[in-house]
Amino acid sequence: MKYIDVHAHLHDKAFNEDREIVISEMKKKGIGAITVGTDYIQSQKAVELAEKHSNIWATVGFHPVDNKEETFDVLRYMELANHPKVVAIGECGLDYYWPTEEGKMTEEEKERQKKIFKAQIDLSIRVSKPLMLHGRPSKGSMDAYEDMLSMLYEHKGIVSGNAHFFVGDTSIAKRFLDLGFTMSFPGVVTFAKEIGETVCFVPLASMHAETDSPYATPLPHRGKRNSPLYVPIIVEKLAELKKESTEAMQKKLLENAREMFAVDKIASKE
Q: How far apart are CA 55 and CA 47, in angstroms?
């Protein structure tokens, strides 16, 4: 394994027609990926896919806004979470970007999200696996990150994890680092200059590359479906921003993923 995409959705329906072809090509190019659950059914699919492939791992979790019909049942998720190929709990967290059906983010909705997030923090502690965090603030603020950090600080030194698709500023990044959390950066680093400042601030030992595929496709492939096959592009851009060689960045990010998510063993021998 040469590269690891720490946050993808390979079990998503966007890959229904060519999933096995994509994964086969990933194996040829030495690319591994963590496929991320967003509700119970999607978490099941992620685990089933990880079981089939040595270069795929899974997370199980409940996204804050993707499925408001499901009631979070910690016992069902715990059964999935104990699977040996499950490397994290999530994606979970707080999302204040999308309003409710009434057109605004209510305190009731915030409390609903916090309750579910708290349950997944507790699950992370119980199964001794890190969190895969989803945080999206309302426009012009860092509010979702602020609330997430307040909850996480209650468990400082007990929980670990990664803030996926990190779009916080350097002050937010500093607080995640203080908690021992890492941050992953997606394909938007290839075209969104404002993220570059944060990338430069975050220590190399505390970062990861991700695609969030099938979304957030990097240049020069914007407009097409994203996939873990594009993670080398993101690694190359991170190396440029950090003024590192691509080879050094590649090796360090792989080391970081092994340390945070224990993605290793079988795939590393192929």
A: 13
Distance CA 168, CA 174 (A): 10
Cα four-point dihedral sign 64, 178, 248, 239: positive
pLDDT in tens, 116-141: 999 999 999 999 999 999 999 998 99
The confidence score (pLDDT) of residue 11 equals 98
Q: How far apart are CA 100 and CA 103, in angstroms?
A: 5
Burial environment of residue 254 by CB neighbours within 10 A (0 to 12, 13 to 18, 19 or more): buried
Burial of 206 (C-beta count, 10 Å sphere; 0-12/13-18/19+): middle
Residues in the chain: 270
Axis-axis angle for helices 143-153, 170-178 (nearest 10): 10
Cα 169 to chain centroid, rounded: 18
Number of neighbouring beta carbons within 10 Å of residue 68: 13
> Which candidate, 213, 263, 210, places its Cα nearest to that of 53?
263
In the chain, DSSP finds a helix count (H) and a strand count (E) of: 9, 8
CA–CA gap between residue 112 and residue 116 (Å, rounded): 7
Cα–Cα distance measured from residue 147 to residue 113, given in angstroms and rounded to the nearest whole number: 11
CB 6 within 8 A of CB 257: yes
Q: Mind listing the domains of the chain with CATH numbers?
A: 3-269 (3.20.20.140)
